[in-house]
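[scheduler] slot 2 assigned
[scheduler] job type: sequence-to-structure, two independent chains
[scheduler] chain ordering preserved from manifest
[runner] begin chain α
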Amino acid sequence: MEVKFLDIVELLKRSHGTDISVYDDSFVARSLANRQSATGNLSLNDYYLLLKTNWNEGFLFLDSLHIAYSEFFRNPLTFALLEQVILPVLWARKKKEKGNELRIWSSACASGQESYSIAILLDEIRESSSEKINFRIFATDNDQGEIKKAQEGLFGPGSMKKVTLKRIQTYFVQHEETYEITGVLKNYIDFSCFDLLLDQRACPTPSIYGNFDLVLCSNLLFYYKHEFRERILEKIGKTMAPGAYLISGETEREILMKYNYQEVLEHSAIFQKKTKL
């Protein structure tokens, strides 16, 4: 039999209970080619046979589809605008509302660098403000292993390239080549597992009702097909408070523009829902 891509999809669905058809075809094809190369430049037929006889290879292939790379303050322009404009605006809004909590959702947090970056910015605003507004960050990922890493808060030098020395001294404890997040930041964040495609709830359980002022969904959408991007954005949209902001990855800006979002500043990857006329 001549193996086709759909045969791989069906095999992994049966053997591992995972449907890879949700992912963008070109992304899956690259991952498949990488695994074929890593296992001896196997043909598609031979690689299919390997998947049938070696459960662990199926796991390795599926694991290659989970892109969990992250770093602190990853997009400098986005985080500069968050620090100087967006977060101060949200802080002032909450101050005016008197007593409401500032709520943030990091919806694909990987090992936590993005969530901790936001926590650093908000803690700095809190320290310099006369109003001690409450804020809470709900950070989720569909990979329990990544959530465990995020909760531990241990990072190598590669993650720290964009963190200033002052912030390292304030928010980290260095153990030789490892940097540990302080308890102050950990207390601001609730990490939990949540699958944007599979979970029936619109938002993570610890947040109870959503109503987020800021949602981060960075470097995730471009891995999925159109209909699944739409499902993710529809779910996120239901959780956003009026006037809330949505952060995407730099390469995902055009995707957001197709789904009734407008960028607050060109190339910033910071969006708000378009106002309906």
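[runner] end chain α
[runner] begin chain β
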Amino acid sequence: MVSDLSLQHGVVGRLCALPQTAEDWRRYQLSPAQIAFYREHGYVSGIRVLTDDQVEMLRDELSGLFQPQHEGHELWYEYHSNESVDSDRVLFHALGAWRIRPGLHDVLWHPAFVVPASQLLAGAVRFWHDQLFCKPAHHGGVVAWHQDYSYWTRTKPMAHLTCWIGLDDSDRHNGCLQYIPRSHLWDLLPITGLAGDMEAIREVLSPDQWAAFQHPVAIELKKGECSFHHPLLVHGSFENRTNRPRRAVVLNAFRDGVCSDSNQPLLAGVPTIPTGEKMQGQFFPLLFDPAAAGTDWQ
């Protein structure tokens, strides 16, 4: 049985090293223009997080996780060999890899993730949960249009952020992430499903909102690059029509101080945090505090 890496709050392997000075941390800052773009459009993309060697390390760890009975399988929050109900449209989706493999654990603390996350959240960063989304060649199911926070209303206030990191080059042909710009300004929409029907969301939209779906923005990224998006930004991705896979690690974070809004477990197998109490502890570690790092961007 593998050790549960959620007990380790810090870098445990070889994926990355942490900066030692405030100046070294600042090297990972977003520019004022990038932050302004995020505020206006609900996302910012094309940010390099991983080197090619780091991508290969995570790909190698990921390859061993596709067999359901792999070592450490009991530690997942969720594990779906195929989130889609259609066996011809496979979408591998799993939550909890940070507990199982050292690289997928350490990427949470990567400075190229936590520093921009701190800027966009305007505070210290805590971990919410991770996800793996993988579409095999010629076989990838879709991720239907949705807002992330519609799945996270068991936490309040809404001070969340998503970082989507590609382990392959992603483009329109192999099912890259797509955004509806400025939809982060909309109200919270009802859940219409995560896998299968790209048209399902239409039934909960106004005519003006549906018109925005005629002009989605395809977020084409090189492997190792990422995109950050707001918890209300509507996003999704179409099928993979190519002979190459489309694999991604998704890191979900929130600003320190977010509380539970549920007396039920927030994630499968995680002890309950009563309504109104701060989310912290083993499963929701503090990833980065700009004040402790001696940075001054707040």
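[runner] end chain β
[qc] chain β: The two ends are 43 Å apart (CA to CA).
[scheduler] slot 2 released
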